[in-house]
Design a protein that fits this description.
Length: about 250
């Protein structure tokens, strides 16, 4: 199999089938698929068999590649042979296929690509709403304000030796918490809701410590934005499967 632009192309063949023809077949499928479908359509696909019409091209190409003798005489295989020599296929081990779950004795596939098995992509979240965008922008604003105040605190610390360095830490921790809230809003991670509540708690603690350097309105703004962002993270859940997902 080969992978490109978030799409994987895989084929099953007999052990004596020429590797160069196998990768030529996959390369031909890849080029046709990229030409037929743009990335926007592939990235937003959630239903199974949404590209079922592409099977017509697969079947026509498969018939050509099943007749290897006539095919090899009509194709220029030099480029693919050179690429295979420069980037030898990576053989996936049985353990990487999941031998811990009882899958043993499986044939070892070949993968021409980066030379490693990449992790599964992040689970898609629900579409972003207007309130979610507002919370994202406000969180970035709070992070920027904390960052600026942190640099000012460093300047004051350098000019006055009696200044407390812990204020600098509090400002930068507040910046990191705001930016992490933005990350949690955009990407799906494990324990996402718990992380958002812990991040909001860190924002509250930082603002409590900075009570002497901020007025009540500033404290209210930062805490309210943190709570608003936490709510939006909680509301933006992963996309559910389609009702006929197993059809």
């Amino acid at each position: 199999f080969i992978s490109s632009l978030g799409v994987s192309y895989m084929m099953l063949c007999t052990e004596n089938y020429p590797s160069v023809l196998a990768f030529c077949f996959l390369d031909e499928l890849q080029k046709e698929f990229i030409t037929t479908y743009n990335m926007m359509k592939t990235n937003t696909a959630v239903r199974p068999y949404c590209f079922i019409e592409f099977d017509n091209f697969i079947q026509r190409t498969k018939q050509r590649y099943n007749n290897t003798r006539s095919l090899s005489t009509k194709m220029n295989l030099v480029d693919m042979q050179t690429e295979i020599k420069l980037r030898p296929p990576y053989q996936v081990s049985v353990s990487e296929l999941g031998s811990a779950n009882g899958f043993t004795g499986l044939p070892v596939p070949e993968y021409r690509g980066t030379g490693k098995i990449s992790a599964a992509p992040h689970q898609r979240l629900e579409p972003v709403t207007l309130t979610g965008i507002v919370s994202f922008v406000l969180s970035l604003l709070c992070g920027a304000l904390n960052l600026i105040r942190g640099f000012h605190a460093i300047e004051s610390l350098l000019q006055n030796e009696g200044e407390d360095f812990s204020y600098v830490i509090a400002f930068f921790l507040g910046t990191a918490a705001c930016l992490y809230q933005c990350y949690l809003f955009v990407y799906y991670t494990g324990w996402r809701n718990a992380k958002s509540f812990l991040t909001f708690g860190l924002i509250c603690l930082c603002n409590m410590y900075l009570y002497e350097l901020r007025n009540l309105w500033q404290l209210f703004f930062h805490v309210t934005v943190g709570a608003f962002a936490t709510l939006q993270i909680r509301l933006r859940q992963p996309q559910g499967k389609s009702p006929d997902y197993n059809v």
